[in-house]
Design brief:
Chain lengths: ~80, ~575
């Protein structure tokens, strides 16, 4: 998780903001690279991070021998359906 | 068929759909009313969260804002998506695992303090009302422009619809209406974007067209963004893709605003509450992922729309004769959102970065709504955009109203005033609170306070400075005490509000030099958040540790799903 948060920080704050001008010297198609990270790339990376996290946690859950219960409707109120 | 007839048709169809869903999903229990019975599948919750989150501001205003800001618009693009990484990794699964009805309820239990809970309730209510006023104004704008009815009637129709499905259907009604509204709004956003991208660059995917070359016009063969930079230079405006050029925000300000918006997103009660509606912690992680995909679909398209619209607008209007101005220009002029002032009296429209010679003022809010007309797309596309704007505004309004209703009925009436309130009475109270909140929201939409735009900074700043640190410490630091949490929240809120009130209302002419570290009121929530963290951690070390049962509860929340022993009883 710490690695994922580090990537989150590097992509958005460093590549997208702090180093945007030096990166703009390079181009990705018609995009200046820093501009692309700020307005496109960062969002793609955010999506990948949450995806990797969801998969990773599923694996940890399985290692502990638990699969979360399937979706079920519980209208009684407080009882948990998860564990 | 004219644009207006198409709009009546599409708005009529979508509104009937929302009412139909409300009737189908009406609820009879508090669990159904507050958290949709916790039976929402992650994919559906992802769509509902996306619609809940993407408001009139995202749909109607954002691309227009970016179009005028260029690179700096990234504060919204990253700020309003990056928070979901924090939500998915740090908050949503844990809050869901604890499993109560509202965020103030978690705060009250974790910090074993009614005071903490009441502070959280007032933050939640304030943030939500601030936000909802903007949604209702969005509804009014769409109605008055496309259906040519009075803004008041437009808002009343919107209020009527939300009233019906929020009061009858509660969270369950809201959730499934939001799923439908997401589909409407995303289709309405993507169709014109794809069409315009295809027309201008030959690429049907706007995210690619955005970085491709222009097909026609005097800049044919040049990259779209390079074209924009050139046009901007010629007009004496800062370069579109330039970051730290004159006339744009400073780096420290961009950093602070982006952080405040991200952290604020992760602390907004109407977003957090959506993760209570899924069956378990795993579903909360997956629904955060789905939500971000659906939000990203619009958020990666928006900057492309901004760039296309910018080129189109300047090419269509600049140095053109006013007498030959297209029809959409005249209809928006009628609403006062486009103003032409022929300073040199030559009958031509001259757009310029120089305020003394510029003759054209375009309100940022109209770019998305006017874009299909500017690009000469068919009438039904224009009407679809109107229906999408309404879907975005109504879905967010409903989510906010539910937070207000739950805060009043569950956190104030039940927990503070009448602990043994029976469920059916609480449900009736929740409905009355929702109805009351809808009416107040409608009132704010008809008579918008002049400072709606300014107070939006408040919503994010306060969420960032109050909820986020307290929730994060509540989950990851067992040692944080009630004294620490209360002191942290009060300082965070106090500092952030004082700063915003000072620079927004008392001394609004202050320049960046007078700002603390050069941070504007939009970004000050970041400092408020840091102060909250520091005070909460320090005070906690000097006060008696939380009771053992609270410490056990935190262990429980954080252990992998399987090892949780007894579900916490209410």
């Amino acid at each position: 998780m710490a690695v994922l948060l580090l990537i989150w920080f590097v992509v958005s704050y460093l590549l997208g903001i702090v180093f945007v001008e030096p990166l703009n010297q390079f181009h990705l198609g018609g995009f200046p690279l820093g501009f692309w990270f700020a307005q496109q790339g960062s969002i793609f990376v955010f999506i990948i991070l949450t995806l990797v996290y969801a998969f990773g946690m599923d694996r940890i859950d399985r290692r502990h021998g638990v699969e979360s219960a399937p979706a079920s409707s519980d209208s009684t109120g407080f009882s948990e359906t998860s564990e | 068929m004219t644009i207006q007839e198409w709009t009546y048709l599409l708005v009529g169809i979508t509104f009937s759909l929302y009412i139909g869903i409300a009737i189908w999903s009406r609820v009879g229990s508090t669990s159904g009313f507050y958290v949709a019975g916790r039976g929402v599948p992650p994919l559906a919750n992802g769509m509902a969260t996306a619609a809940d989150w993407m408001s009139a501001a995202s749909f109607i205003s954002m691309a227009g804002l970016i179009s005028f800001m260029g690179y700096t618009g990234t504060i919204y693009l990253m700020g309003w998506t990056g928070g979901y990484v924090l939500l998915a990794l740090l908050l949503a699964p844990y809050l869901r695992k604890y499993g109560r009805y509202t965020i103030p309820e978690f705060v009250g239990d974790r910090y074993y303090s009614q005071t903490a809970r009441v502070i959280a309730v007032f933050c939640a209510i304030f943030v939500s009302f601030t936000y909802v006023a903007g949604q209702m104004r969005g509804v009014g704008v769409v109605f008055s422009r496309f259906l040519e009815v009075d803004v008041t009637i437009g808002v009343l129709i919107g209020v009527g619809i939300v009233f019906f499905y929020a009061v009858v259907g509660g969270m369950r009604g809201i959730t499934y209406t939001q799923v439908a509204q997401f589909c409407v709004l995303i289709v309405a956003y993507l169709i014109p974007a794809v069409a315009i991208s295809w027309k201008m660059t030959g690429w049907a995917i706007p995210q690619i067209g955005f970085g491709s070359t222009m097909l026609e016009g005097q800049y044919a063969g040049m990259a779209l963004l390079e074209t924009l930079d050139t046009i901007h230079r010629d007009l004496g405006l800062p370069e579109y893709t330039g970051a730290w050029v004159n006339g744009k925000k400073s780096m420290v300000d961009v950093l602070a605003i982006t952080m405040a918006l991200m952290v604020g997103t992760a602390g907004l009660p109407h977003v957090l509450i959506r993760f209570y509606t899924v069956p378990n912690a795993r579903a909360a992680r997956w629904s955060a992922m789905w939500a971000l995909i659906f939000i990203g679909l619009l958020y990666t398209t928006a900057p492309a729309v901004s760039a296309f619209a910018r080129v189109n607008m300047i090419e269509t209007l600049n140095e053109k004769s006013y007498a030959d101005a297209p029809e959409w220009f005249k209809s928006w002029e009628g609403t006062g959102l486009i103003v032409f002032n022929d300073r040199n009296g030559d009958g031509m429209i001259q757009y310029s970065g120089n305020a003394a010679t510029n003759e054209l003022t375009v309100d940022r809010d109209i770019m998305v709504l006017a874009n299909p007309e500017i690009a000469k797309l068919p009438a039904w596309v224009v009407a679809l955009v109107a229906a999408g704007g309404l879907a975005a505004a109504l879905s967010t309004a409903a989510g906010l109203l539910l937070v207000i209703s739950a805060s009043v009925s569950h956190d104030l009436l039940k927990s503070v005033m009448w602990k043994s309130m029976p469920q059916h009475v609480e449900l009736r109270m929740a409905r009355i609170a929702a109805a009351f909140a809808v009416i107040v929201a409608g009132f704010l939409g008809i008579y918008p306070p002049g400072f709606v735009a300014q107070v939006v900074a408040f919503a994010f700043g306060l969420a960032a400075a109050s909820f986020f640190p307290i929730l994060l410490l509540g989950i990851f630091d067992k040692r944080t005490t009630k004294e620490g949490a209360i002191a942290g929240m009060l300082l965070g809120i106090g500092f952030t509000s004082a700063y915003i009130i000072w620079f927004r209302f008392i001394d609004p002419t202050a320049t960046a030099d007078q700002w603390l570290f050069g941070i504007s009121p939009e970004g000050i929530g970041t400092i408020g958040m840091v102060l909250n963290f520091m005070v909460a951690i320090t005070v906690s070390r000097f006060t008696p540790p939380p009771p053992l049962e609270v410490q056990n509860m935190i262990e429980d929340i954080r252990s992998p799903s399987g090892t949780c022993h007894v579900p916490i009883q209410h």
